[in-house]
Amino acid sequence: MISIKIMINIKDIDISSLTKEQLISLLNESKNDVDTLLAISKKLADDNSRLTDNNKMLTDENLKLKNEVSELKKQLEHKKSLVTKYNIENYVDNSDNAGNHKKRFSPDEKAKQKVGRKQGSKNYESMDLEKLSSENKIIYNDILNDYMKDHPNAELVKIGEDKTYVIEHVPAKITVHKVITPKYKTKEGTIVQAPSMAIINHSYASANLLGYLTMCKYTLGIPVYRMQDMLLDQGLDFSYHTIYGWLMKTGELLKPVWEALKSEMTSGKFTSLNIDETTLRVMETMDDNRQKCYMYLYSANSDDARIRLFDFTCSRKSDNTQKILSDYKGTITVDGYSGYNSLMSESISVQRCMVHLRREFTDIAKTLNREQRRKSEAQKVIDLIDKIFEAERKIKNKCKTPLDVLAARNTDEYQKLVDDVDDKIDWLDKQTLSISMRKAVNYYMNRRSEYWTYLNDGNVSCHNNDAERQAKSFAALRKGFLFCRSEDSAKSTAVLISLVKTAEQSDLDTASYISWALQGLHDGRKPSDLFPWSKECEQFKLKSKE
Predict the structure, then answer these.
(1) For residues 495 and 251, is the Cβ–Cβ distance under 8 A?
(2) Helical (H) or strand (E) element with 306
(3) Residue ranges of the alpha helices (H) in 17-103?
């Protein structure tokens, strides 16, 4: 009877108001009460579910807060980098060009650098307007006749005259000529007739029109659709595809001159070559999952000739370059691209570009503030390399022959500059470095000897700026046409831009030179007689370069 009473009393208790410990105690006292056990079990299950939900909610909120903090940190780092860049741009030398390394001037020195007209000099005195006007009709601006009409009784005595000049613009004009070619027949029935004047079969375009269109595209960077508008303004309604076809055919016709330039470049006349590459999109290759093709650039200089050769290839592999340089003996100056390693042989040595080496350390210095840069090992390496560039600049201005250059580089003073750079990076290689600094040091150590090849040849430069400039000029032109439609089109582009850029190195009017070379091939002349540095090309010299 006592146990039954206890059960009754337990049932009357409000279980929901009990704590976990009280429930456990009550459970121990009423193990045989099924209803009580179920109620306790439900209470515990509800408590557990509620705690689980609360835990999940807190976990989600924590993850959300972490993401927000991470995003805020990224924004803060970005703003810090912008501030750092802004603070150091005024005193970090951004130039990678060894030939145009910036000098820092004090305010007083900057004031001395102001460019202006010399005291006592006249405006435009550098132009020979008298010579330019001698080819044209003189304009007499005389008021005598009009004045005498209004004042018939006046007596005028000439006391002198004023001389000045008027510069007029005469719009370019395209002329159309009718060509009549008589046919004759001999007694034997043979037809005799002058050869066709057409440079391209069944085409109305003359050599000088093709030269003008080539100059528009590869010197001025004018797209073909604008050339179409230019011709239409002259009453000539040629389609885009027709003009595009003319340019492609011009490249095909001039390829023998390009081949002759390539042979001249590797003939032994040039003991040093600069090589670089840049990308070119070709729509035809996109179907073969080849997103990028390449235009390789070769730069060669001698006392009497300068060659800028462009060669198209579908990949960055050096196979095509190996074919071009199969007979070459000398030194090639290139960047750090490992693909050039395959070009080294008994007859070809490699000079790595020191501007690219400097750039590796410059990228590190740009991320540091002023105080950090003063203590930075990267900045110390930059300063040592800059001393070599400064010495090279002085040698270039002072020395006239390769032997003089070689002698200047072999002096103790110059050799100390070389040893300072090599010893500094060698010491850094043995230290514990950051990831970026280790990358820059390895960039040198992996090619260590190849940075000093130029010390053995006065014709070789320590940098690859000649080829780099050609790559930049091609990239600027590429913005005008964006891509080539086919591989044949890309090869024609390589031929035309090679001749244009080589002609520019000889200070020629490119339109006149291209038309002259086309006409020369049409007349049966040898391609080697049509180089831009030939004596006949003196007539095409730009007046601004004379």
Answers:
(1) yes
(2) strand 306-313
(3) 20-29, 34-88
